[in-house]
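Fold it.
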Amino acid sequence: MYQNTIGKKSLQTEILPQPLATALDSLQLKGVKRATAIQICSRILALQHRHKLTCEDYIQIASTYLEKIDPQYGRVLKVLTAENITQIYQNENGTTYSTAKHQAKAYRVNPELISSDIQEVEYETKRFKTRNLNAREEAWILQDLQSLRIDAQKAQDELQDYLEYLDLREWEVTQRSYEYQQNQQLTTVRFGTHATEYKYKAQYLLDIFLKQPEQEGKKLYRQGEHYCIDTQQAFKRRKVESVRKRYGQALLSLQKQLFYATRSITNSRVHHTLTETPTFLLEFITVNGEILEELDVCNSQLACLAHVMLHGDVLGNAGIEFPHLDLTGQSRAFVEACQAGSIYQNFANHVQASRSVAKTELFRVCFGGLQINLPAWKTLVTHYAPVAAWLQAVKKSVMTTGEKFNLAQYLQRVEAWIMMENIYPALKSAGLVALSKHDSFLVPKLEFDAAKAILETEFERLGYLAMVKNKVTPAVATPFEVTPMIEFISPAETRVKSATEFLEKMKSSTTKEDEDFFAMLDSLAVSNPVIEDALW
């Protein structure tokens, strides 16, 4: 069944945890639209997953986002909250705002209604309006998706083995971690499942918290882009539940052929069933008995950046005039490394970190806000000064519409133009099965060499220089990002002013089971003056 993404009312399908589906179907209250209730709960779960949060965390959602589902969402949400299907976070003052009235409210689906058992739920409504796929693209994607087959039993067996021997060292922060070595400040840290967040140095965490007596059992773990302090047992339980739910939904979608395809208005990227499928499952998907291989463009977005630096506005709709870049010395080294696919490793050598950490940091300085205090930005200035100046000028640019220019979105549109408007038609004209994954294509193994030759020919025609490779899918892939996001925060922005205030804030967001842990911290704060000095 192919779900149309544009148009009139049609029958849609959501995959929800079974207890949640049962609770929604049991709603018999007047004035509650079943379709709206289903969509609200589904969007909350989807946003939690996108931000790598557990089912026990709250996610902030702007009212404008919920209004797109239904202008009368408030009436339905009120009933869902009254029935304890959804929950709204309240801070220590008893308000439903995190810190101030102008901030979005934080929601979650009742964790008791989340389980690994899932169920299909059908409802009739309009889907979100997105950029329409043209008829040719829609036919191609539908045909290729329907040719997919997955060995679900083998995938489930492999997943069970992976979860049974889950190695939490993937996510544990230790003295060998990049955060500790660089003494950077972490973005946010949660204590267990509490919503309250704190910001402080990684070295402080490791010196004070991770060296506590063994019976405390609490460790510091990466949790997506954030960090949490929790026991190994509790962290593993939440991790296993989250993995089961995500993989269960993906398996069911492929087994039942619940396919979808959209194209983003913002960045022109095509999203379909396989772009959201965990990499772990690709090993078990075949087309006509052939496994899929990923034809990947090395550091694609940085290669697009180099292309724009050399040729300017290749799309003709940037809304700004790109500054000129003299291709000499440092700037030439940067551009050539982007084209050769070696820029991440080169930057890793400069910052003396792993390639994954270097990639994260390079993306932040190139495509994030202008943060000249970041250590990675200072590294960029030291080794690629003309590139840093070019990026600084672009980030300060204002488009003809008066909006601030977004370099990352523009480069994603360039990437989509190259891959979807040029490469994809050429692949399909050659009769090849090819499913896009933004900067790569999944193709049957026997067709890999033919697809690679087409990519290289089209790149040459466009004057686009980039390295193409076979991206090997590991036998067991980590289902979650493990690369830390490291952020420099000035003293003026830090909320915690002293060790005493820090301990009081933590206590206000804890349960009784944590009392002994914080009693020990009280004694440390008195006996160890290092705590006071460690805070900003």
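Confidence is low (pLDDT under 50) at residues 1-8, 98-102, 474-500, 524-536.
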